[in-house]
Amino acid sequence: MKLDFSSFLLGCGVGAGSMLLGKRLRPVMLEVATLLFRLQERAMAATPMGQEALAELLAEARARVSLPAGFGTGRHPEPTHPRTGAPATHPVKHPSPFGRGTG
What's the DSSP call for residue 100? Predict the structure, then answer.
């Protein structure tokens, strides 16, 4: 593996710069984060549905993100063959990890 000296110096400069700027920017970032939390609290207090209902709504939205496409709407995509992408007419069998028959 070849070490490029200019890349090494650039990495050192970025690291040193982030350390120096991090100390100076911390109070600014703290103020921005505080402002955002205040805005969130005001929005939560102003919503007619209440904090628990809004938390449930956000949890359901987060759960839908992790589901496969079409799962939340009741429409499931048709199964396809993993290698060819063609519609699968039967479940794909994979070799058994124990070496006998199929899974």
Answer: S
